[in-house]
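mind reviewing this stuff:

——
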Amino acid sequence: MMMSHMLKYLLFLLPFAFSAKLYSQPAPVVPLIRKVFHDNIDKNQKEIDLLDKKEDRSLNVGNDQEVNLQVGYTLYNKIDGIQDSIELDKDLDANQKVRFLRGLNEILSSYIAGYKAKELKADQLPVLVDAFQNAMDLELKQAAITPVIKDVEPEIGSILLKVFPFQKNAGLAESKEIVLLKICQKDPERILPILRSNPNVSFADSLLKIVAHTHQEDIYTYAQSTTPLGRRIQKIDDSLVRTITKLANINEGRMYFPFLDNLSKGKITMEEIGKAKESAYKYYSLLVNTEIDYTARLRRRDTPMAMNALTGMLKQKAVEEFINEINGLHDEPDNIRMKKVEPLNAQELYYLCVMAETEIYTSSYLKVYERIFQRMKSPNSDTLLMSVNFDRFKKFIKMAANYNTLDDFLKRMEKGNAEILMRAFASGLDRTNSLEDAVDVADSYASISDDNLRRLILNEVQTNINKQTNEDNKRGRTIYDLLNTIFLSLDSAGKVDISAKFGIPPIYTVSNKSLRDKGGKIIIQQFFYGDKDGLTFFNLFKSAYNIPGWKIVNKKEWVEVSSTKGVPVVIYANRPLDEKEGLDEKAQDDLDSYLTDNDINPTIVIHRGHSYHVSSTIAQLFPTSKVIFLGSCGGYQNVNRVLSISPYAHIIASKQVGSGTVNGPMIMSITETLRQGKDLNWPEMWKSFGKKLKNNNLFEDYVPPYKNLGALFLMAYNKVMEG
């Protein structure tokens, strides 16, 4: 056994021993003019050595000693050997030696940045160095480096294509396409942001056809634009893409888009939708009936296209056409106040409730709830839920609990059915892609006054903990364990600290000190985009900080806004340069590189731009970010994506319209609070925002971090899954 292990170890070292012979010649004498390049490489070697917190000429990346040996050997022996071979190569002139030494140093710098950003793994160092050496050999032969790029992961290929020696390589253009395609295949969510920057790549059409079946909303948005990618989409010969493009370029296309799936299958015509949209009642009824139909299809595992758009439009019309009116007439008698909703049937009233959860007044909800059963021939809850295919029944139960109508709702069905329903309410929370249902269960529990009902839900949660444990379902176990903890924390005799138990940061505050870097600065990165609105709000942003206590330094592609007293706060904001020329993206990329190269890590990130730009901002987030402000419309829908990159971030976002008139004052208040050395206390700050923005109705759509219970679930989930 010992002999076998030793033989394996010796065989592992053989290639290193052979390579060592290649570099066993005397160390070359380095001319003074190139010594600085060697010194920079040596510094980077030392920094890589310290990535495992030990300076010992090795890098321990895990329990596999063979991998550790390979990484350690590469770090010094192989890199030193490449330096020596460059200096000793008589066929290289002085400029060529500088080129390759500079390139070697650049890949090491990129490796360090990638490792710190968790974009590269430690054991990828040997692959990167080998790839550089192979590419260097091809470059010296004036051959394309494409074969090397084909053989490595896209993150390695990206580094090689950015270094100085290969910028004029014959295979550069083809290699860039190869890397982009690999990135798209590895992470489909990045396809559209990548194609936005590279609309003319050879594979664009084929990827866009694929994306059209999964991201119809994004295709629609881009098809409306005059960007190069928008024009590319408009020319694609594909039936689905043509349908989306047609809708994107007609008046009121958004009114037709929710029915995309039925349109594409010939189940409804443009004329039928056009006729329905002439009447608020007929259009809302069409939305409701389509939602019920699509819900039935979902239960058959048949997912309709653009269902999020359907749900979004249903919510919009429920609020705009009906809820806003009955809310606004809250002081009027019922015959005036409720006149607008009188023609609606039970199902249509049901959707008014579940779609307007955050907008509906208490009195409006109670009157709508009462009318639901008045419209039914058999006013029982079983029939109601079956008629909507149990769509959003957990949301309806949550609202009933919060408005004290749950007892009435459950009494309208047989007791046995009521128990089954409430068990179903607390079950299956692990089967969806989101945690919204779990959040609704948590919100409901505290509102239920019936001890027997609370006990039933708690028992169901605890039963599911055992079930998920037996099935070795870590995600399910995490969800139910978190719910159990929340429910038990309501017992005054057994308080449970959720943050402590799950190892997540406090949800109500962010300390000032936790946002500072090693030098005591708070770094903020703000993203702007090169359209008309971007330019307008960029100028307003600069004007807001043209006050005592702040200074603005203008750079070619970005500005730096710094506090001049108090805690050092620095805001880096790219200029909203022409998006049609891709200059806004270049400014962002160059700013990202500047921050990375100078080890500047933003702890606060702010998105200022339309919803179709938010993917680009998210793709550039630093894992170090602790506060993220999504100022776009519907930014709340991107919470999950943000937390997948910055798992413990406090997120501010709007559920509906994002507005510069709300974003600006809130951002200014946050930065001033930090400059004064104060912590971000969200409940207190939200009260202050409410006073400042009391005349701005759009502020009501913004969700503060401490009320983002879904994020709390996701934080706990991510933390447990890390272990």
